[in-house]
Design a protein that fits this description.
62 residues, mainly alpha, 89% helix
Length: 62
């Protein structure tokens, strides 16, 4: 019976470790996705601001 207890203990430790790694991987993916989405939104806003500035300034013709 003690062998079954030792096996269950080892298996549970492995299972908990595996779950912790999976949760860390998912959290890293979600954080990275959110950061990339935020960066893309900032870049799009900056590009729109540059386009708006260049559209307002008339070109000089000689």
């Amino acid at each position: 019976m003690s062998n079954l207890s030792l096996f269950a203990d080892g298996f549970m430790r492995y299972l908990v470790t595996y779950i912790v790694f999976i949760v860390a991987i998912v959290a890293a993916f979600l954080i990275g996705f959110a950061l990339k989405k935020s960066k893309n939104a900032k870049e799009a806003t900056a590009e729109e601001a540059v386009e708006a500035e260049t559209a307002e300034v008339p070109e000089k013709t000689v």
